[in-house]
Amino acid sequence: MTAPGPVAWSRGTWTTAPVAVAEEGPDLLVTAAEGSDAWRHTSYGFVHDDAHALLAPLGDPGAVEVAFDADFGARFDQAGLVLRADEQTWLKAGVEVSDGVLQVGAVVTLGRSDWSVAPVPGWAGRTVTVRASRAGDAVTVRARAGDEPFRLVRVAPFPAGVPAAAGPYCCAPTRAGLVVRFRRWATGPADAALH
Question: Which residues are in coiled coils (predicted)?
Fold first, then answer.
Protein backbone atom coordinates (compact mmCIF):
# COMPACT_ATOMS: atom_id res chain seq x y z
CA MET A 1 0.00 0.00 0.00
CA THR A 2 1.23 3.45 -0.87
CA ALA A 3 1.31 5.90 2.04
CA PRO A 4 -1.50 8.42 1.62
CA GLY A 5 -1.06 12.18 1.97
CA PRO A 6 -2.83 14.27 4.64
CA VAL A 7 -6.08 16.09 3.98
CA ALA A 8 -6.83 19.32 5.86
CA TRP A 9 -9.99 19.20 7.97
CA SER A 10 -11.04 22.43 6.23
CA ARG A 11 -11.30 20.63 2.86
CA GLY A 12 -14.34 18.67 3.95
CA THR A 13 -18.04 19.49 4.00
CA TRP A 14 -20.36 18.04 6.66
CA THR A 15 -23.28 15.91 5.50
CA THR A 16 -24.97 16.74 8.82
CA ALA A 17 -23.37 19.27 11.15
CA PRO A 18 -22.32 17.85 14.53
CA VAL A 19 -23.20 19.45 17.87
CA ALA A 20 -19.68 20.89 18.14
CA VAL A 21 -16.36 20.81 16.30
CA ALA A 22 -13.01 22.00 17.65
CA GLU A 23 -9.45 21.78 16.43
CA GLU A 24 -6.93 20.89 19.12
CA GLY A 25 -3.46 20.96 17.63
CA PRO A 26 -3.55 18.64 14.63
CA ASP A 27 -6.64 16.79 15.94
CA LEU A 28 -10.34 17.39 15.26
CA LEU A 29 -12.76 16.86 18.17
CA VAL A 30 -16.31 16.15 17.04
CA THR A 31 -19.34 15.99 19.35
CA ALA A 32 -22.09 13.79 17.90
CA ALA A 33 -25.80 14.51 18.23
CA GLU A 34 -27.89 12.06 20.22
CA GLY A 35 -29.81 9.79 17.84
CA SER A 36 -27.51 10.40 14.86
CA ASP A 37 -27.04 7.34 12.63
CA ALA A 38 -26.70 6.01 9.07
CA TRP A 39 -28.90 3.11 7.91
CA ARG A 40 -31.45 2.23 5.21
CA HIS A 41 -34.36 -0.16 5.72
CA THR A 42 -32.93 -3.64 6.27
CA SER A 43 -34.29 -5.49 9.32
CA TYR A 44 -34.96 -2.32 11.34
CA GLY A 45 -37.32 -0.76 8.80
CA PHE A 46 -36.10 2.81 9.29
CA VAL A 47 -33.96 5.24 7.31
CA HIS A 48 -31.40 7.37 9.16
CA ASP A 49 -29.16 9.70 7.18
CA ASP A 50 -27.88 12.10 9.81
CA ALA A 51 -24.48 10.70 10.77
CA HIS A 52 -21.78 13.37 10.90
CA ALA A 53 -19.54 12.76 7.87
CA LEU A 54 -16.86 15.24 6.80
CA LEU A 55 -16.42 14.51 3.10
CA ALA A 56 -14.28 15.62 0.18
CA PRO A 57 -14.16 14.17 -3.36
CA LEU A 58 -12.18 10.93 -3.66
CA GLY A 59 -10.50 9.87 -6.87
CA ASP A 60 -11.64 6.72 -8.67
CA PRO A 61 -9.52 4.71 -8.19
CA GLY A 62 -8.36 6.05 -4.84
CA ALA A 63 -7.96 5.31 -1.15
CA VAL A 64 -8.89 7.13 2.05
CA GLU A 65 -7.59 6.62 5.59
CA VAL A 66 -9.00 7.98 8.84
CA ALA A 67 -7.40 7.62 12.29
CA PHE A 68 -9.26 8.29 15.55
CA ASP A 69 -9.29 7.30 19.21
CA ALA A 70 -11.68 4.40 19.92
CA ASP A 71 -12.70 5.73 23.32
CA PHE A 72 -16.38 4.78 23.35
CA GLY A 73 -18.67 3.74 26.17
CA ALA A 74 -22.29 3.49 25.04
CA ARG A 75 -24.18 1.11 22.79
CA PHE A 76 -23.63 1.86 19.09
CA ASP A 77 -21.12 4.70 19.72
CA GLN A 78 -19.16 4.66 16.45
CA ALA A 79 -16.56 6.36 14.28
CA GLY A 80 -14.58 5.65 11.14
CA LEU A 81 -14.89 6.66 7.52
CA VAL A 82 -17.66 7.11 4.97
CA LEU A 83 -17.49 6.68 1.20
CA ARG A 84 -20.64 8.24 -0.29
CA ALA A 85 -22.02 8.67 -3.81
CA ASP A 86 -25.56 9.65 -2.73
CA GLU A 87 -28.15 8.94 -0.02
CA GLN A 88 -28.72 5.40 -1.32
CA THR A 89 -25.13 4.52 -2.26
CA TRP A 90 -22.58 4.62 0.54
CA LEU A 91 -20.31 2.66 2.81
CA LYS A 92 -19.35 3.33 6.42
CA ALA A 93 -16.51 1.43 8.07
CA GLY A 94 -14.95 1.69 11.49
CA VAL A 95 -15.53 0.56 15.04
CA GLU A 96 -18.58 0.66 17.27
CA VAL A 97 -19.85 -0.70 20.56
CA SER A 98 -22.26 -3.59 19.94
CA ASP A 99 -23.28 -6.43 22.25
CA GLY A 100 -21.20 -4.83 24.99
CA VAL A 101 -17.87 -4.95 23.16
CA LEU A 102 -15.95 -2.88 20.61
CA GLN A 103 -16.44 -4.29 17.10
CA VAL A 104 -14.78 -3.52 13.77
CA GLY A 105 -17.07 -3.64 10.79
CA ALA A 106 -18.75 -2.07 7.82
CA VAL A 107 -22.20 -1.16 6.54
CA VAL A 108 -22.59 -1.24 2.76
CA THR A 109 -25.67 0.48 1.36
CA LEU A 110 -26.81 0.01 -2.21
CA GLY A 111 -30.44 1.02 -1.77
CA ARG A 112 -30.61 -1.11 1.39
CA SER A 113 -28.02 -1.48 4.15
CA ASP A 114 -26.19 -4.57 5.34
CA TRP A 115 -23.88 -4.94 8.35
CA SER A 116 -20.88 -7.04 9.31
CA VAL A 117 -18.84 -6.89 12.53
CA ALA A 118 -16.10 -8.75 14.39
CA PRO A 119 -15.12 -8.19 18.04
CA VAL A 120 -11.90 -6.27 18.75
CA PRO A 121 -11.96 -5.70 22.53
CA GLY A 122 -8.20 -5.10 22.54
CA TRP A 123 -8.68 -2.00 20.38
CA ALA A 124 -10.67 -0.13 23.04
CA GLY A 125 -9.02 3.15 24.03
CA ARG A 126 -6.43 2.93 21.26
CA THR A 127 -5.93 4.88 18.04
CA VAL A 128 -7.62 3.00 15.20
CA THR A 129 -6.96 3.57 11.50
CA VAL A 130 -9.53 2.55 8.90
CA ARG A 131 -8.66 2.43 5.19
CA ALA A 132 -10.98 2.10 2.19
CA SER A 133 -9.50 1.50 -1.25
CA ARG A 134 -11.80 1.95 -4.25
CA ALA A 135 -10.98 0.43 -7.64
CA GLY A 136 -13.26 -0.83 -10.39
CA ASP A 137 -16.54 -2.07 -8.94
CA ALA A 138 -15.23 -2.75 -5.43
CA VAL A 139 -14.05 -1.19 -2.19
CA THR A 140 -11.55 -2.99 0.03
CA VAL A 141 -11.76 -2.05 3.71
CA ARG A 142 -8.88 -2.61 6.11
CA ALA A 143 -8.33 -1.52 9.72
CA ARG A 144 -5.75 -1.66 12.49
CA ALA A 145 -5.06 -0.45 16.02
CA GLY A 146 -1.83 1.42 16.70
CA ASP A 147 0.94 0.34 14.36
CA GLU A 148 -0.24 -3.26 14.03
CA PRO A 149 -0.57 -4.66 10.50
CA PHE A 150 -3.79 -3.80 8.67
CA ARG A 151 -6.38 -6.58 8.71
CA LEU A 152 -8.93 -7.16 5.99
CA VAL A 153 -12.42 -6.16 7.12
CA ARG A 154 -14.46 -6.36 3.94
CA VAL A 155 -14.42 -6.49 0.16
CA ALA A 156 -17.65 -4.83 -0.92
CA PRO A 157 -19.37 -3.87 -4.16
CA PHE A 158 -19.51 -0.20 -5.11
CA PRO A 159 -20.63 1.17 -8.49
CA ALA A 160 -17.75 1.77 -10.90
CA GLY A 161 -17.31 5.21 -12.40
CA VAL A 162 -19.71 7.00 -10.03
CA PRO A 163 -18.31 10.16 -8.40
CA ALA A 164 -18.03 9.80 -4.64
CA ALA A 165 -16.71 11.66 -1.62
CA ALA A 166 -15.02 10.24 1.47
CA GLY A 167 -13.78 11.20 4.90
CA PRO A 168 -14.22 10.77 8.66
CA TYR A 169 -17.57 10.19 10.34
CA CYS A 170 -19.09 9.55 13.74
CA CYS A 171 -22.54 9.14 15.24
CA ALA A 172 -24.22 8.33 18.53
CA PRO A 173 -27.51 6.49 18.01
CA THR A 174 -28.32 6.00 21.70
CA ARG A 175 -26.91 8.91 23.72
CA ALA A 176 -25.74 12.50 23.94
CA GLY A 177 -22.18 13.54 24.74
CA LEU A 178 -20.04 11.35 22.46
CA VAL A 179 -16.87 13.23 21.55
CA VAL A 180 -14.54 11.62 19.01
CA ARG A 181 -10.92 12.67 18.59
CA PHE A 182 -9.93 12.31 14.93
CA ARG A 183 -6.16 12.28 14.51
CA ARG A 184 -5.67 11.98 10.76
CA TRP A 185 -7.42 12.09 7.39
CA ALA A 186 -5.46 11.13 4.29
CA THR A 187 -6.00 10.11 0.67
CA GLY A 188 -3.87 8.47 -1.98
CA PRO A 189 -3.76 5.88 -4.73
CA ALA A 190 -5.81 2.70 -4.53
CA ASP A 191 -4.15 -0.44 -3.21
CA ALA A 192 -2.29 -2.38 -5.88
CA ALA A 193 -3.46 -5.78 -4.63
CA LEU A 194 -6.20 -7.29 -2.49
CA HIS A 195 -3.77 -9.38 -0.41
Answer: none
Calculate the alpha carbon distances from 38 to 44, 59, 113, 149, 173 in Å: 12, 23, 9, 28, 9
Q: In 3-state terms, what secondary structure has residue 122?
A: helix
Q: Is residue 169 part of a domain?
A: yes
CA quadruple 109, 115, 117, 123: dihedral sign: positive
- Residue 190 CA to residue 133 CA, distance in Å, equals 5
Contact 90, 84 (CB under 8 A): yes
pLDDT grade for 9, boundaries at 50, 70 and 90? very high
User: Within a domain: residue 193?
Assistant: no
Q: What are phi and psi of 9, to 5 degrees?
A: -55, -35
The number of domains in the chain is 1
Interval 73-86 mean pLDDT = 94
Distance CA 102, CA 77 (A): 9
